[in-house]
Write a structure and sequence with these properties.
With 327 residues, this protein is mainly α. The chain has helices at 2-19, 21-24, 31-43, 55-78, 82-93, 100-107, 111-136, 144-177, 185-188, 190-213, 218-245, 257-260, 269-282, 286-296, 302-326. The longest helix is centred in the middle third of the chain and has 34 residues, at 144-177.
């Protein structure tokens, strides 16, 4: 029963959020808390000393930035559809989702390497967006340092807060017991179920946004819905290729290999990196993306990030279903 639920949890959570959105949208304020504790339990699995930068981190980040601005420039050059251009820009430039290490771990990817990239990606976005968005939308009231600090203030509590809380717990446990801190199998499953709860609430918010704009922006909604599907496939696919051809060590100390990331132990280094980089490139921090579009671009561009939520979760559902049925 648990295996069946785990492999179908994402599409079920999206369905619940979409159908019950009038009652679930008021739960939006609990999202930061869900994300905080979800990341706290995830980071408890990771020894900060195992976090290292590898080649694929820089290649994925460079590809993310290239496609972001090349897509925007191409669409503006040929169609002048600013909503489509900014909407797809958001699909590319959104940083890696804070929940990505959870899904990567479920599929046999490297939690450590993806945690490293998640930190890199989110802080790179905090620098790049204030530096470039004034050129994209000159009407936006944005200067670099205020915008940088504002974006950083939205990222840091949900990214660094649980990271340092987990690190302090690890240090305190080791100081008291003189043993290596290892999260037991029960608590190790909590992040996934917290993420499922957050997807239910996010799906409700996306449904409300789409319904409220449906009549006025039907053509843009349909175009963004279709185009974001192909952007999603491109990012997951390209990330997997980059990880496969630029494999990186995926585990910590020898005696921790199986305990830190048991599903990755039997796999080749290239296979682990392929899963990890695919999630790094494809699974996006869509809530941050929706906020950035609403704050600094045409508010309708946020529908690109909203549509992306649907496709990335469907893609993750398929991946988890395939992994579950291979075991």
């Amino acid at each position: 029963m648990k295996k069946l639920f785990d492999s179908n949890a994402l599409w079920l959570s999206m369905l619940i959020g979409a159908v019950c959105y009038p009652w679930l949208v008021p739960l939006k304020p609990i999202l930061p808390w869900l994300i905080f504790f979800m990341l706290f339990f995830t980071f408890c699995k990771v020894n900060p000393l195992d976090l290292r930068l590898h080649k694929w981190h820089w290649v994925v980040l460079a590809a993310q930035l290239f496609f972001s601005f090349a897509t925007y420039a191409g669409i503006m050059c040929f169609t002048h559809n600013i909503v489509l251009a900014q909407g797809l820009l958001m699909c590319f430039i959104m940083p890696t989702a804070t929940a990505a290490p959870i899904i990567a771990g479920k599929m046999g990817g490297s939690i450590q390497n993806l945690t490293t990239f998640t930190l890199l990606s989110n802080f790179a976005t905090a620098i790049i967006v204030p530096a470039t968005f004034p050129l994209i939308n000159p009407a936006a009231d944005m200067t670099f340092w205020p915008a940088f600090l504002l974006i950083l203030s939205r990222i840091s509590p949900l990214l660094l807060g649980p990271f340092f809380a987990a690190w302090l717990l690890r240090l305190g446990y080791q100081a008291k017991t003189k043993k290596e801190f290892i999260l037991s199998s029960g608590p190790a499953q909590i992040p996934f179920y917290l993420w499922v709860c957050s997807i239910i609430v996010l799906s409700a918010v996306v449904t409300e946004t789409t319904v409220s704009n449906f009549n006025d922006q039907l053509s843009n909604i349909l175009i963004l819905l279709v185009s974001s599907f192909f952007v999603c496939l491109l990012q997951f696919g390209l990330g997997k290729l980059i990880g496969y051809y630029l494999p990186a060590p995926s585990k910590g100390k020898d005696y921790q290999d199986v305990l830190i990331n048991p599903s990755a132990a039997p796999k080749t280094m290239a296979g682990v990196s392929s899963i990890t980089a695919g999630q790094a490139f494809g699974q996006k921090n869509t809530s941050l993306g929706v906020w950035m579009a609403n704050t600094y671009l045409d508010p309708m561009a946020s529908l690109g990030a909203a549509a992306y939520i649907i496709w990335q979760n469907i893609f993750n559902s398929v991946q988890l279903f395939v992994v579950a049925h291979k075991k």
